[in-house]
Fold these 3 entries.
Entry 1:
Amino acid sequence: MSSSSEASSGSIMDLAGDDIERFHAHRTCHIIVDSCADFDPDVVNQLGVEVIEFPYVIDGVEHFDGSWKSMTAHEFYDRMRKGARATTSAVTPGRYLEVFTKAAQNGLPTLYMGLTGGLSSSIDAARQAAAMVKENYPGFELYVLDNLCPSAAAELLSIEVVRLAGNGLSARELYDWACDARYFIQGYFTLDSFSALAAGGRIPPAAAQVGGKLDIKPELSYDLNGSLTLRGMCRGRKKALRAIIKDFKENYSHDSSLPIAIATSDSEKDGDWLEKEIRKEPGCEDVVIIRSQIGPVIGSHVGPGMVALVFWGGDRREKISLTDRIARKIKNSK
């Protein structure tokens, strides 16, 4: 499976059985996601969910982040390689109000799973809009979930939510399940350079220059709030990729019924290498691996050359530090 279309076509069908209509037959709720889950187009079409598209601007022209409709991933990242600046903005409360109002008028209980507040303020806008809709439609069931995990991690969460919805779970049951399940999705990734992070103000330009000169490649993940976290620094790309595989071996759930995701920003060869290494692991020979491209919104901040491996693993809450545990207890007691 070397291309995203080959990797994903049939993958959800494998999970759902041979009849996609039966997959959706018992769904009793409406599911809304957003484009920052970086879905492969074939996957999102088979899931049958509504997608809210995030806006982005490149070369002064506004586009919307939805399945690479206006340009291909290669075209987008090639522009970035040539110096084009891509910028993003949050979804407005007005847009969420429009989507949620339409859902309320249809009357079906609705679950929205949005990009983590650790990376965007959009989830706050969604909550504001949801509160207004509930005032106007007091009997309408609407749940807003911060998925606490970005990119393909949110894609994996969405797949399982849709599968459970197909088994007849209600919107409330899906919300409660996802509130816990989101902590069991683990993701590790590396970048080709620090340039995009520096351009977006996420790291100092001087640090980006030093990293480039020393061929430093970071291994990153995300914390319990969905914010990016640095796991380590590697000399060279191959060492960073090996560090990702090491974390996979240590944290993978070894449940072959759950798919694995590999997402890249125009760096398919490295994605191929990760997939070959995964296939060498016991029990992973036939596991579904979904391949997708990092969308332009997240891609604007990480740049070309990102490679991410996402999978179901152990509970990430069990690995937090003592100080984080104390802080969480204090927060929950308020």
Entry 2:
Amino acid sequence: MAQFDFDAVVVGAGAVGLACGYALTRRGLTVAVLEKEAAIGQGVSSRNSEVVHGGLYYPTGSLKARFCVLGRRALYAFCDSHHVDYDRCGKLVVATAPEDVGRLGEILQQARTNDVEGMEEISAAQAIALEPELKCYGALVSPQSGVFDSHGYMLALQGEIEAGGGAVVTATPFEGATPLEAGGFTVRAGGAEPASLTCRYLMTAPGLSAQDVAATIEGFPAGKIPKGHYGKGMYFRLVGKAPFSRLIYPPPIHGALGTHYRRDLGGQAVFGPDLHYVDTLDYSVDPNMRGAFADYIRKFWPAVPEEALSPDYAGIRPKLHGPNEPQPDFQLDGAEVHGLPGLMALFGIESPGLTSSLAIGEAVAERLGV
């Protein structure tokens, strides 16, 4: 039997890559996670809302629907067992116009189809009784939604991988892989000390660079690499007291969940993300967007003081669809797609990827047959 340096190599030390490494470690495999940045979780995983999603909106039977619900349940349990901070504060999906009330019923039905626990439709008066600063025409209550410490979570995953004899190696870009005749791969890693290592299984979850990484794997058919798009979202932080204790979400916009409100674990109010398609990884926040944010926020919080909104940060989502195109599912592509046994390539892991990460990791391990 061939001897390998590691049983598995994972490309990308964001939440999903680390969760995949954790799932493989739990099965007794030795895992090396390669990360091009100087620290874990510096890409998509550090520039999001840190929201634990309930799983309300996603199409019946989709990977997003299934992984979000399974991942969310597993995530709270993981946070409890690893002392990772979270606040299961609940969420209100609010009708910000009379014509939105009908959409609440549709979302409620989809949420129940997706096996989301505790969903309830309430009147505007009931919603305002829960959140007195709110303006709405009706709402859904999602009690399982919340916010959590995503960096604490990723550090706990890293600790589990290392405790299992694996390694999480930062500042080490993946530069390519070659399938071995007898099975497995030779992986080329760059950085200050370039190296070559062998593994039985290779798993790619590098977020925004998923397409570029796939293109460096010998034998990966170019026609099986989906076109990627950058979906930028900006956030504004409120200087002052947070107006709501629960997450507040208007109905989803096309291609995303839209600008919403959260109170982070530090007690501050944050609004975002909006959605703009961009061609480069530009993380700047345009302060001139303050007015547009305030106008949107007034739909559910009329008293928002525009001057108290401060530009905060931006994130970029690895989308598989462009503007006005249908939003596709996660892609977990195995040998049945690309023809390379032992390789799992992940594409389009945007929201709810963070919530879904533990379920994605389990699915990857199962698909690899370990």
Entry 3:
Amino acid sequence: MTRVAAVDCGTNSVRLLIADIAPGEGGGTLTDVERRMEIVRLGEGVDETGRLSPAALERTFTAMRGYADLIERHGARAGHGPVKTRVVATSATRDAENRADFVSGVVDIFGVVPEVISGDEEAELSFAGATRELAALRPARPYLVVDIGGGSTEFVLGSSSADAARSTDIGCVRMTERHLRDDPPTPLQISGAAADIDAALASVREAVPVDEARTLVGLAGSVTTVAGIALDLPEYDSERIHLSRITATQVHEVTRRLLHATRAERAEIPVMHPGRVDVIGAGALILDRIMREYGFGAVVVSERDILDGIAWSLL
């Protein structure tokens, strides 16, 4: 048994998974010890300025200091001593001119250098994390795994491993800042965002044979929030959301509802995390356009994603 800590720092959130991993038949087992998420909006304004703002960096470092304390406590409690830790940073940090400020701050907090990974590696880790628990459902293969983040969306096709992947610069934060600026967004803003998304989806086809996919697997907060709304849950319930199957009709209706709602109305939705209120319309629109453009009738929703992939990589 190995105790590991995975930290995923994205454009919108920073997340922590402390887990015990054991090798074994079928690939081994991963048991959660602690799983946390904080909305820090690290990528706020990066699409426009090209830089991580001091306020965004401080929000991120504050969350990370809390995570470092948890890692130290859980390592000591289990008698493991230092926990094997990997910190991964994705889209916003890849795009930022001043990412060295981020790197030095992370080293001070965790004592490890963060890996600013490529979009392709992000896709590989997302696929690994998302697909280990799918066998029980017996979904048709190959899978198209789609990870909708704040600054980018990763697409990866495969059956047991990633065969083809593409990272695109469409994400819920980036599309909101670029297009959906009114409350609620105007029809012209929505059509502009849809056109931007569709252009990115066309580029994905150049690298990923999406028409070969038989099952769409959706990851990350935009997808799980849309699923929670579609299931009409009275509160966010990860157990009911994980491995749920949401139809294209349900996704389209939730997207329409979110894009026509005001910020105040979105905030009243029971499953809505406060940090997603501003950007969930764009995230839902990305999922909706993917299903329309690629012809999927349903999406299997996974609560397991790049964070779990990072943890498995430490075994």
